[in-house]
Amino acid sequence: MNKLDVRGMACPLPVVQVKRALESAQGELHVLLDDGAPRENVKRFAQGRGYQVHEEPLEDGFAFTITGPGATAAREATPAPAAVAGPTVMLIGSDRMGDGPEELGRLLMKNFIMTLLDMSELPDRIFFVNTGVLLAAEGSEVVETLNELGNRGVEVLSCGICLDFFKKKETLAAGGVTNMFTIAETMLTARSVVRL
């Protein structure tokens, strides 16, 4: 069994280290990691690639046993799909739209997000970074809209480092937490990226 300790590592290093270990591992991978974003991100990463994740709580975090073939073998056997086949991604980097007055910018962003519910085609994922994460936290006027988008199949994800910076992780009210590795990987394989 291969062992990896990623406790104390800042985002996105836990996911990056697990990815590297899975690419070279034979059999099971045993990972020690912190609770919170590292636990959620590594679990989502591994399961998204077809691995089974067994988790066990520890006094100082969690232990994961990751097993299964994952998607590595399948990727090697078949050529990578063209970027055209990837998801449609929206990257929202601010709680307001445009460079004008703040009040107007916040109103425009609110109206834009609420208007998405009326669109016939929705993005597959919406990533919130920087002050954009404030839109997914308690007190935001668009939390209900973001949760409805989630119910319609849109993956709503906020940057964990950004949530920590603004002290909003505990008040996240829409979607889940992600990391920069997942954001970068998704954008590089996306069919299209809409940046606001």
TrEMBL record:
Xref: CDD domains: SirA_like_N
Pfam families: TusA
Domain UPF0033 per the UniProt entry, residue ranges: 3-67
Name the record gives this protein: Selenium metabolism protein YedF
Superkingdom of origin organism: Bacteria
Family under the similarity heading: Belongs to the sulfur carrier protein TusA family.
